[in-house]
Specification:
Structural class: alpha/beta
Oligomer: single chain
Strand content: 15-25%
Number of helices: 15
Order of helices and strands: EEHEHHEEHEHEHEEEHHHHHHHHEEH
Largest sheet: 8 strands, mixed
Length: 385
Amino acid sequence: MQKNLFTLNYQKQFIATEKSEIYFYQDKIDLKKLFFSSESPERLLEQRRLFVTDTNVAALPQLKNFTSLFGAQEGKAACYDGSGCAKGSALIVIKAGEKYKTIKSVLQIVQAALDRSFTRKDVFCAIGGGVITDMAAFAAAIYKRGAVCEFVPTTLLAMVDAAVGGKSGCDFEDYKNMIGAFFPARKLFVYPEFVQSLSASQYRSGFAEALKTALLYDKAMYNQIKKNKEKIKEREKAFAFKMIQACVEAKARVVQKDMTEKNIRMQLNLGHTFGHALETCAGLGKVAHGDAVAWGISRALELSERLGLCSKEYKEEVTELLAYFGWETKAAPKYFHPEDGAKKILEAMRRDKKNSSKKIRVILQRGLCDTVITEANDKDILKCL
């Protein structure tokens, strides 16, 4: 059953699409029916689609009847042409993992579309987590100066954050998301049921972004998280569905006001300036994105208290919650020698995309849902590392 439709409008800020339509589904995952069934005329292919996924997602049992349309082989990265109801569409399977979030993989997607004479009215459709949605959207953005893209997010992180709002791109020279564009998807098809198939690491990583959203914008959700910690660990379906919807709507409200991250959208980077630096220094793919963000939130709160912005009590309450869910909250992560690691992380933070001066821009908090976009000097940051 389709639960509801949420529309994210861009108010003519962007040429990619005027809006993103976000569909939530509570029923069984069936992408064959979603895109090709005659039972759902509104889902019949009006345009050809280049479906983009990775080897891990393609091997999921829930996708077997879909990938079989293309002759995809489990665990094999390749491009497959459709038959039967696929009607000229194709499926490209990329190797899974952050290490393959490269310009080479983006160009593989572009090449697959070019080989099949896709036009810019055809659709690049990502089925996967944030790595896949970022790369497929970037490929769409640069293909013939802009094709159409759609998403089926399969991880909690992609559902609550990565797939919403139009950021696309890839990593470059060990730096996170250094190449990219703002290029929103025309449609998102969200199946919370995918959450049940995630590994513990993937689930924890996605939940970090959900908790971040609650800290930024939703006091009620934050209090529900504190009260329902066991339900969260057990992936209780009803709670997960409500949490995903709340995160999508909270992020959409911010994106509608600031599509290209000129002001308030920067708030969504709470924990990310520290976290992206950790990912870079540890080696991309070594630390899950959400784990790095959760650690980054603990560092942002430490810096907030040090600068007199938030109380010790607020910092300790959130830090204890982070620790409860198994995230690292110590100043020096286990991956580094304390002194050398701090210097390396600081240097990586200098290269953050949000910086506009010699100081490092950071997202800090005065308290719950009270967020500050500011700059900090090296001395104060190092004390938190």
